[in-house]
Design a protein that fits this description.
The protein is mainly alpha-helical. It folds into three domains: 3-50, no CATH class; 61-139; 170-324, Intergrase catalytic core (hpI Integrase, Chain A, Orthogonal Bundle), CATH 1.10.443. It contains 15 helices and six strands. Strand 5 and strand 6 form a beta hairpin. Helix 8 (186-196) runs antiparallel to helix 10 and helix 8 (186-196) crosses helix 12 (281-292).
């Protein structure tokens, strides 16, 4: 709150906010002092007061990232991935710079150096995480940054979206190769990915209690967008789940790790002699098949969990020959 007091027949206003230099002004009339105080309070709420550069000289980017990692990231479901991203950024030259010296130029240099090592989509994720850290610092921690230094950084183009679907004979090749896997969970995992459009993480978290064979539904309590959903199951999907249910007494139907799936998938596509296919492409394949079977947009969204139809279309790549059969 502003401090207004009368001194020597005049009205003096002083505005104090943590991280900002105190601002003082004197007025002849009290009404003018109150009007100015209200306007300065509004500026303070917008973090628009003159900043205390001395405080920025005491905090490095690494200090800010450590606090963000240990307080904000630890509450996220993707904390393992984001913690790893932050640890990478903390080894970069800009992390050792004090906030008073940080500039968009330093961040642009980091972006360009990383582009020689990783894909543009990785850079954009790193910059997005860094931008959120600076926003939290400004709005919640009272760190007097004049602006978000990431805001003016040009993000690299990620190029065209993936439209990879299974080619003729590739599903059969995957199934044949999967029979040779030492990890007997891989074949049903691949089948369910295509039959349900579930993400890999959702598949690995399936528990016995999530399945209702009577109603032919599967409850997914933890999803990417944070909202649970219940999806319908085809007869074939129910057969796969019955098979898994009968093979083990584990609570989880797939008691394996993401790393195990990653390694097994690489061996699988090599054995099947398939190139350029990611596990996540099976979700593209599943969504596209649902549309080809005549399911409506709301019905497919119910299964896939997409809230925005535009995002759903990104995962949908119909085959012209299938549409032609309807004409």
């Amino acid at each position: 709150m502003p401090s207004i007091r009368k001194r020597n027949q005049k009205w003096q206003v002083q505005i104090r906010r943590k991280g900002s230099t105190p601002v003082t002004r004197t007025f002849t009339r009290k009404s003018d002092a109150e009007h100015w105080a209200r306007s300065m309070e509004a500026r303070a709420d917008r973090h628009d007061l003159p900043h205390d550069v001395q405080e920025l000289k005491r905090i490095s980017v690494a200090n800010l990232l450590v606090r963000y990692r240990d307080t904000v990231v630890e509450r996220k479901r993707c904390r393992v991935v984001e913690r790893s991203i932050i640890n990478v950024m903390m080894r970069a030259p800009f992390a050792h710079v004090m906030l008073s010296e940080l500039s968009p130029t330093l961040l642009s240099e980091y972006r360009d150096a990383r582009l020689a090592i990783v894909a543009p989509v990785t850079i954009n994720r790193e910059l997005g995480l860094l931008s959120h850290a600076f926003n939290i610092a400004r709005t919640e921690w009272g760190i007097p940054l004049a602006s978000n230094p990431v805001a003016g950084i040009r993000r690299p183009s990620v190029g065209p979206k993936r439209d990879r679907r299974l080619l003729s004979g590739e599903f059969r090749a995957l199934m044949v190769a999967a029979r040779q896997c030492r990890n007997h969970h891989i074949r049903p995992l691949v089948m369910l990915a295509i039959l349900t459009a579930m993400r890999q993480g959702e598949l690995l978290r399936i528990q016995r209690a999530d399945i209702d064979f009577g109603l032919r539904t599967l409850h997914i309590p933890l999803t990417k967008n944070g909202e649970p959903r219940t999806i319908p199951l085809s007869k074939r999907a129910c057969q796969v789940l019955h098979y898994l249910n009968a093979r083990s007494d584990n609570v989880r139907l797939f008691p394996i790790s993401t790393e195990s799936v990653k390694n097994a998938w690489q061996r699988l596509i090599r054995r099947a002699e398939i190139s350029g296919l990611h596990f996540h492409d099976l979700r593209h394949e599943a969504v596209s098949r649902f549309f080809e079977r005549g399911l409506s947009l709301p019905e497919v969204a119910l299964i896939s969990g997409h809230k925005d139809p535009r995002m759903l279309f990104r995962y949908t790549h119909l085959k012209a020959e299938h549409v032609a059969r309807k004409l």
